[in-house]
């Protein structure tokens, strides 16, 4: 079995822009120096957590002050998860239904980090090395499956400002198909447009307008992969004009909707 996946040991000193992609992602923070945003919530990165991002989740993180954020990141194409799944052990369902953030027990964390240390090493050309690495990878994934099913869920950020932003993100998720704007959201949350813009930009790194557009494009990408046509989609994701949808989609993804629907490789879409 020729399994495709990528494992990185990252050290970040700058924020990572909001983005989404087709593959699944597991992130394991190695220190406490970041806050990340996913599924309309903000979370503090903590050593020993496991963070599960499904395909097409919009996510980003910010480094705390001038600190360096360190983490392991594992990228998992859907085909790879499908190849190692069975009727009784479905890794795609496990990640899609996993808590966004969970705290690993010390024994689980030790086992996971040991697997990653082996998998991060350069593959050997020695006969059988590829086979043994595939076995270790599947053991790692079984460990993560166990963590996802028997987990202690980590709390999301609870201070006032991120809580307001969480509510705004949730409101956008529930109303993206409607005619929403900075003005409608400011009325909804009883904040001036300038104050609302400031709070949202400080917490997420982007404007509300750009986030709404990106969220709509992300939903369009999901619908395209499910087989819907671009003509069916544009009004479902909040665009009033078909041509505006096509132009915006190309600007955000670098390709037309029909090209994206056929695109089989892993593809980052930055907001």
Q: Can you characterise this structure?
A:
The protein has 271 residues and is α+β, with helices and mostly antiparallel strands. Helix content is 45%, strand content 19%. It is built from eleven helices and eleven strands. The strands form two sheets. The chain has a six-stranded antiparallel β-sheet. A five-stranded antiparallel β-sheet has the order 5-4-7-2-11, covered by helices on one side. The longest helix is centred in the middle third of the chain and has 21 residues, at 129-149. It is globular, with a radius of gyration of 20 Å. The two termini are 35 Å apart.
- Runs in which pLDDT lies below 50 for 5 or more consecutive residues are none
Supply Rg. 20 Å
Assembly context of the chains: single chain
| Approximate shape | globular
Q: Spell out the helices and strands N to C.
A: EEEEEEEEHHEHHEHHHHHHHE
Distance between the termini: 35 Å
Note the total helix count.
11
How much of the residues is beta strand, in percent?
Answer: 15-25%
Main pleated sheet: 6 strands, antiparallel
Give the helix level as a range of percent.
40-55%
Overall mean pLDDT: 85
Spatial arrangement of strands, main beta sheet: 1-8-3-6-9-10
